């Protein structure tokens, strides 16, 4: 661990040239169960294990305790005397001291701890402990988000998120993207279409024409996207990204929507080709899947729980392939020529429904041994937001924009991106066409209102650029094979629900 | 770059054992100005540079353009004919093609670009461009946060943040801490003391006893701290951390306060000693300063702008020293025996004022060549929140808690942490003493209200633990030598101000 650590710090320390490993002091000397299982303890006759009892099995002469600490799906098996095991029950926090010996049943576990001393750190009354060792439905567990991550597979999902954050941080760092902190409280709602949460508190200031007496003197919202702010930062510091909480006050009560979720957004500057942007999407997903595919701890643990595991493996393999691309117009043709009965008829210039997205993902993303995400590009201008760049050429005279969605089975759309309209005049015309500002040659600052600053970005030194937003929770749910996004978010928020 | 990259991914790829570098495809082939200045271009006769004009100087026979792209404080100098330079002005986005040749004035720059071709990508009308090359006050620049990061030193501050995030991500990853995403919309206000922002939107549901008709059916707030949620996660997955936006609706209009700021919080589990927690604080700050101190690009750039630069160097050196520790009681004695005239008289059991914190930081954190942050520990129980663990021994019979603040000059408190009360009964008593719940043997669920889940954590398998919160923006301001925190946050929010 320390060795890996030193190497890692040296490398990330390229952020600061010449950086050396400085983290030689351990934070605490505790060995996690994952490390005990992975590495032979330095002195096998003197091992200290701390963790929580997952289950206990009493025989006449001895007792077997299975303990975990969240670092590993696999438990550590401990052998105790019945007397030592007396006050132990599922959920109890313990410290066991003993010796680490080869197991007589190596198929079950290679080693087991022969316990000499037991400390009960925190008891768990079996009469009230809500997570007894038995099957609980996801719905039941969601009523206690503060407890459910104690279930081993939920700890694995926490570690998946952590590893995924590390992997994308590394990838963007390596590629020279600056990580930024975009604001959460904002004045505009980006696409003008989302349902937003209001933020505020009374300042009890005097109400005047320019001051409504609230904390910020005007209505403010929780951000629905960091895109507009990222565009400003990209013009300042080059390619940028952020992994930031994002909010929608949508009343959707589905397996794919949350009111609060993490979005990974990036902007690529000084580029005229959408390929550059789509390549960053591939790199991002590949950064997360590569390790899972080649057998990480988290990857192995997810496979142990997956049914069928082959589909999970296919998804992970698919993450590092070249993603197939199809235009929206071609996609509509594929849907129209299919014999599948859709609830909504697929037709040009209406959005793709979830059923359409699933069909496209399944039809075009299947290779012999991988499930590959599918890019659908060049949607009709009429159904996309004002800031997208119109395509240079149009197919059959139909007006499209340079944009893409990335589709996968089950989770459907996990990424949306586009080239941005970087020219002042066309941006104004697009805002007018979308009835965001009144018609006329050039709007006043007042007419532009909360988007004045965004229009400003096109006035001085504007350059071609594009970017995307990736639903980080959806990606994790897809890669973990978890059907409901509420399972990969520890404290999920949706309409009517905000527990803890 | 690609070489560093491959190594970096291999290392962070330990998240996923066996991970290899997969990011071989560049996102776009653009060379940043930092790379051109650092590395000799592969073919010096055919160099393409994109960026923004910082200044232009016309002579009779030739013109000199200084251009930047946010990747480097140092500009790139380009030589043009007066005809080529005709339409160029400060802020213009350009693409220059030419050859990279040694400069006749190597003291000013080692090489310069002899321009053959000029593309104007995005013009900038000098009559309206608001960032002409001259001094602008911070106050003026804050009126246009979307533009001010185009100023070279502000780009450096963006890159400092990015590098700092990478450094702490690496450090925590190496030390086996899981990075988590704690919720932003919450039901409780943690310490019960903060002024909170309300979040909501009308759901227009029916109002009943359990449903106030709003989106979440009950009042919700923007988080003031992730601590309580992190404590739940620590019991699930071991040591955890988060770098998360945090909110205070305080009307403070100071150089050290924002309404929206990033807090780095961590919890260390299965530990009974606060030293373990304080060591993580040192590791965190050391991870950021080590590179600055030993001469990173960002470090060198900050020094170029600092006056006096020696104080900056002292702060960076101090980050990797052992931080001195003093108890609150000793600190009060130091203050009382000082000849310094304080506005507020220092006395036991009142909080430390900013003037006291500054004095302690200056008196106890000065070594011969470094300014070292100072830990003040064991504050009186009466002035600290309900969740802090009472100290085992008390000095002079005065009741204290196992807690610490970390103080630095100017920014004052940048970290606060403590051991947490992990025992059920004492926690209940402490909540009662703080009048959060009524007196009595054991409160009902209803009385516990929005803190029921937090109390639950002490019911089953509770273990000793502690943690801290570090004001990430304050740390960056301190390390950058920037007197106002509003300069290190791109889109700062404070009372009455939420621009863009």
UniProtKB/TrEMBL annotation, chains A, B:
Protein keywords: Aminoacyl-tRNA synthetase, ATP-binding, Ligase, Nucleotide-binding, Protein biosynthesis
An individual GO BP term: mitochondrial asparaginyl-tRNA aminoacylation
Enzyme nomenclature, EC number: 6.1.1.22
CDD domains membership: AsxRS_core, EcAsnRS_like_N
The keyword Nucleotide-binding is assigned to this record: yes
GO function term, MF aspect, one: asparagine-tRNA ligase activity
Claim: DNA damage is one of the keywords in the record: no
Top class in the EC scheme: ligase
GO cellular component, one term: mitochondrion
Domain spans labelled Aminoacyl-transfer RNA synthetases class-II family profile: 158-492
Highest rank taxon of the organism: Eukaryota
SUPFAM superfamilies in alphabetical order: Class II aaRS and biotin synthetases (SSF55681), Nucleic acid-binding proteins (SSF50249)
Signal peptide (UniProt feature, chain positions): none
Assigned protein family: Belongs to the class-II aminoacyl-tRNA synthetase family.
NCBIfam families: asnS (TIGR00457), PRK03932.1 (NF003037)
Name this protein carries in UniProt: asparagine--tRNA ligase
Protein species of origin: Phialocephala subalpina
């Amino acid at each position: 661990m320390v060795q890996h650590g030193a190497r890692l710090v040296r490398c990330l320390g390229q952020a600061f040239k010449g950086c050396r490993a400085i983290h030689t002091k351990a934070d605490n000397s505790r060995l996690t169960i994952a490390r005990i299982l992975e590495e032979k303890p330095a002195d096998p006759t003197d091992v200290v294990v701390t963790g929580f009892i997952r289950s206990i099995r009493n025989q006449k002469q001895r007792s077997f305790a299975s303990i975990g600490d969240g670092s590993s799906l696999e438990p550590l098996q401990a052998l105790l005397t019945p007397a030592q095991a007396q006050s132990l029950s599922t959920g109890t926090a313990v410290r066991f001291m003993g010796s680490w010996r080869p197991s007589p049943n190596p198929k079950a576990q290679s080693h087991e701890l022969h316990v000499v001393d037991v400390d009960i750190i925190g008891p768990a009354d079996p009469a009230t402990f809500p997570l007894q060792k038995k099957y609980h439905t996801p719905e039941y567990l969601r009523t206690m988000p503060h407890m459910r991550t104690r279930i081993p597979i939920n700890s694995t999902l926490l570690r998946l998120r952590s590893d995924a954050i590390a992997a994308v941080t590394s990838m963007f760092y390596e590629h020279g993207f600056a990580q930024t902190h975009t604001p959460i409280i904002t004045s505009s709602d980006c696409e003008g279409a989302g349902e937003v949460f209001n933020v505020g508190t009374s300042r009890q200031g005097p109400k005047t024409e320019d001051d409504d007496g609230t904390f910020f003197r005007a209505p403010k919202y929780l951000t629905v996207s960091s895109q507009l702010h990222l565009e400003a930062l990209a013009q300042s510091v080059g390619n940028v990204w952020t992994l930031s909480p994002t909010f929608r006050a949508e009343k959707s009560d589905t397996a794919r929507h949350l009111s609060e979720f993490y979005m990974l957004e990036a902007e690529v500057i000084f580029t005229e080709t959408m390929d550059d942007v789509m390549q960053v999407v591939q790199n991002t997903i590949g950064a997360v899947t590569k390790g899972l595919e080649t057998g990480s701890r988290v990857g192995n643990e997810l496979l142990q729980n997956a049914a069928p595991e082959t589909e999970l493996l296919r998804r992970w393999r698919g993450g590092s392939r070249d993603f197939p691309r199809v235009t929206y117009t071609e996609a509509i043709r594929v849907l129209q020529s299919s014999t599948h009965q859709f609830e909504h008829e697929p037709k040009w210039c209406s959005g793709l429904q979830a059923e359409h997205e699933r069909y496209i993902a399944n039809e075009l993303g299947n290779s012999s041994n991988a499930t590959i995400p599918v890019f659908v590009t060049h949607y009709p201008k009429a159904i996309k937001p004002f800031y997208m760049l119109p395509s240079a050429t149009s197919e059959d005279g139909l007006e499209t924009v340079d944009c893409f969605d990335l589709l996968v089975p089950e989770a459907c759309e996990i990424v949306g991106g586009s080239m941005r309209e970087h020219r002042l005049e066309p941006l104004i015309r697009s805002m007018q066409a979308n009835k965001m500002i009144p018609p006329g040659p050039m709007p006043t600052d007042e007419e532009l209102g909360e988007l004045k600053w965004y229009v400003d970005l096109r006035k001085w030194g504007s350059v071609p650029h594009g970017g995307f937003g990736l639903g980080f929770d959806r990606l994790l749910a897809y890669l973990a094979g978890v059907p409901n996004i509420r399972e990969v978010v520890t404290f999920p928020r949706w309409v009517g629900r905000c527990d803890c």
